[in-house]
Predict the 3D structure of the following.
Amino acid sequence: MKNRSTFWLTSAVAAMATSPLAAQEAMGIDEKVNQAFASLTGPFVSLIFAPFPGTSFPWIVMWLVVAATIFTLYFGFVQFRFFKHAIQLVKGDYSDPNDAGEVSHFQALATALSGTVGLGNIAGVAVAVGIGGPGATFWMILAGLLGMASKFTECTLGVKYRNEYEDGTVSGGPMYYISKGFSELGLPGGKILAVVFSIFCILGALGGGNMFQANQAHAQISGIVGDYPGWITGIVFAAVVFAVIVGGIKSIANVTEKVVPFMGILYVGAALIILLVNYDQIGWAFGQIFAGAFTGLGVAGGFVGALIQGFKRAAFSNEAGVGSAAIAHSAVKTKEPITEGFVSLLEPLIDTVVICTMTALVIVISQQLIIDEATGNYMLNEAGTAIATIDGNSGVSLTSAAFASGISWFPYVLAIAVVLFAFSTMISWSYYGLKAWTYLFGEGKTSELAFKVIFCVFIVIGAAASLGPVIDFSDAAIFAMAVVNIFCLYFLMKLVKKELASYAARLESGEIKKYSH
Amino acid sequence: MTAKIVIGLDGTDTGERALAFAKDLAARMDACELIAIYVIEWSPFTFQTAEENAQRHKRREEEIALAKSRIVDPAIAALTDAGFKATGLVRHGDVAETLNRLTVENGASQIIVGRGSSDGFAKRVFGSSTQSLVMHADVPVTVVG
């Protein structure tokens, strides 16, 4: 894969040098990249999304939802019982002032969120609603609420079994809790499963954490400045990411980390304004969401189609059960690993239940999706695969058109937001991927550089390929992480339950005290 | 009974003047213990990258060691050489809040701080740490110009 990728990169650079042939040849490169990519990743994608025999329901979607439901029941609806406590932890009410200067609960949450809030919330939701109809939103919210329990489980383990090195740095994540947790329970195979997870994590970092981001960032930019070959965006993005992760130019990452939260607030603010202006339609939009959830309102695959899309995009957006957040959350300073579990359960809530729902409502209210007046159902496009939209938009351009119908200049802001979100997600995932890579190949300059270069090459491929194959591979890679992670969580969840019982008892007795009120 | 006085160091000239004033004050008292504190401005509500988080503990130790060797230890040495009983602390946090909390925790009866530099746009808008300390402290505060 690496050799092929390098070949495409070299070809892209060569094509840029021969500018007279530019347009024609460049489009040719995009097409070639696309074809090669689709045929390479096809079998992997088919395996992950294989339906249950005799149905069209992918087993992987069931796998995630069943796990989230089991964790919710096993921990007695922890996401609701400890919701208030989670907020108090983030506010720092239980933080020892003498630990000031260490990573706070808020910082760990914000870092994890910057890896998840992004294109999944903007483009992913548009894909879900565009294919599954408004009803997909209902299933997305449900998956978000259930996913809070998955996140709680994995992040508690992430902190409990992290590696703390002598020089004071930390490394954590599923690969560490799988190997350490399994050996603590006397179970065989922990090491092998950790290795398999790490391989999938690297693929996930290259897919959802990289190619999908590059692809949609290009779609957004070309939507504004006009169509041009994707590999150009790819090269620019790759150069900037390279400067940060290889060149160590921290200032770019620092600026992004500080601007991204404001972009998030701006995005939610704009969505709220559009909803407020159209407040009389909010009731109708929720009506569509509920009706669509159980009838499908004419979408491909009916209500099952809506459900699959909702669950899929929720998992892709909040990554609950995937294991990535456990890597991000493991750096927090706390004597009680479970406190980070509580904090992390806010992540799917903010990401999916709040932000994704906002996007979905704006898309529905803006009436970008074409309704057949006669039946009240949604009309399908010519291929019959998705709902027909006013300008034939899909993905991020559908969200952009929806926002533009309320605030005409918003696509420009959205374009900046998308680029920044894409960039910050790439930086986060380059770290997740690197952690998996170093788990496999050991820490060392050459080994780390090799991964970082591969990561940058995939940015170019992602920007050049078309949405279909990229989104399929991204989903498949991220869900493959969830296959291993959730399988292991079933064995490890009793360790979390022990922590939960002990913590809840000490919280009740007042042994765990508040530092501020 | 020994009176305890907290000196807020900031590594600048005004911090030095606060130190000199504290020495002068302590010399007039029968029994006095001086606590020199340097607070590294830090907020738990900032945004950091995953890599920064992973290295945070290490960085914190480095910051504390640097503040101790450059600012607090020389101050304590100067005070001890002058015949005073002195201890030092380095902490992270909001400067005003942390100075006040440590003063109360250590049973000190007053705080002496430098005026602080008052230029910069942010300080004009939000006020300096010294202003905030004067307004919210639980013990008397002396500001040395």
In short: Chain B has one domain: 3-144. The first strand of chain B starts at residue 3 and ends at 9. Helices of chain B lie at 13-27, 50-81, 95-105, 121-126, 129-136. Residues 106 and 138 of chain B are 13 Å apart (CA to CA).
